[in-house]
């Protein structure tokens, strides 16, 4: 019996219950010849006749009755085990470690994480906020959700859209300035060296003298708060600044400073059920968010 396929036993039990090959075939969702072949193979391997072929149908022999007794409850246990495993897969469990920025947590990510956790309470979310990419290869994180125009080549994922950047100031600050003051003559809140790779940091280096920098901050969220307090102009993300009633857009967004939004993971993790569920969910929510602009026509969104 240990070398026998369980499906052969299922056929045996189905024939015994139905009393015919055709009835067993209907119950199992297979054709008549499959039932005949499997039943014949089972009898051949066991070296006994399990059914008497009678004009009225198939009747179990004594050997068949003994086998049915030994199999009592086995089918139910296997079916229950399959349902249990399917249920575990549907519920999804485990840990997902996500790396992102304070910018994303403040502007986009919080509701996404909360809603995903409500759908999958068996999953624990661990969030690491860092302006640098953690090494997904070393499993410092499973998923990266980040604004970047240069995602690491070893990661795979989808580009959900883009974020705009523009010059903002507080109403209180502008009230103290002449209306025709050139941008370069204003005080500025700028990114510090830790954010020197950002496009807005490069723009400031080219357009504004270091002597006009009132403050440098290692966080775009922090920059937004200092501009709001009237310390000067700032090149801010629109998704953050537009939610602040005190802030005014001084210049329209500059397309050259647009930042792409990526949902990324390591190639070895992309088909893990909980990772795929989360990246699909996060991507769909980001695409639907009005703060994330659509990609220009012709841009590929998958890498």
TrEMBL record:
The name on file for this protein is LysR family transcriptional regulator
- Note the Gene3D superfamilies from the entry: 3.40.190.290, Winged helix-like DNA-binding domain superfamily/Winged helix DNA-binding domain
Identify the species of origin.
Acidovorax cavernicola
The processes (GO biological process) annotated in the record are: DNA-templated transcription
Key words of the record: DNA-binding, Transcription, Transcription regulation
Domain named HTH lysR-type: which ranges?
4-61
UniProt similarity note: Belongs to the LysR transcriptional regulatory family.
Give a GO molecular function annotation for the protein: DNA-binding transcription factor activity
